[in-house]
Specification:
Low-confidence stretches: none
Strand order of the largest sheet: 1-2
Number of helices: 4
Shape: globular
Largest sheet: 2 strands, antiparallel
Structural class: mainly alpha
Mean pLDDT: 78
Radius of gyration: 18 Å
């Protein structure tokens, strides 16, 4: 079986300010909160995200994302240095890249495309200008 990974996956260890942190992929129970946090920034998550831009545009969402994916309190995340936060974000993304790139971004984009015709018909029937196709 090519591509078969061990279960559970080996954690990725990242060291931040003398603290070793083991990162593993997200778990099912974390998905509801994670998806709610990721929605505002999903369109900007690429295979090589610009973490500084994401922090600037969606700071609270990125910090919540880091808290959920590291299983640490938000206060701990808030106290990280900027360098450590960017290093941690990159490590979290690496551990969960298949989820973010292959699942989150396409599903949100797909939902938007599926809703577009409905939104156009609703705005047309309400007497407003229809959305462009």
């Amino acid at each position: 079986m090519d591509g078969f990974k061990t279960f559970p996956p080996e954690p990725v260890v990242v060291t931040l300010s003398d603290t070793a942190l083991e990162l593993t992929p997200i778990r099912l129970g974390e998905l509801p909160r994670l998806l709610a946090v990721v929605r505002p920034l999903a369109e900007e998550i690429t295979s090589d995200p610009d973490w500084m831009t994401l922090l600037g545009r969606h700071g609270d969402a990125v910090l919540d994302l880091l808290a959920i994916t590291t299983r640490r309190e938000r206060a701990w995340i808030n106290d990280l240095s900027l360098d450590d936060a960017v290093q941690l974000a990159a490590a979290v993304f690496e551990v969960n890249a298949d989820f973010f790139v292959a699942h989150v971004a396409p599903s949100i984009q797909g939902a938007a495309q599926r809703l577009a015709p409905t939104l156009r018909s609703l705005t047309t029937s309400a007497g407003t200008v229809p959305l462009p196709a």
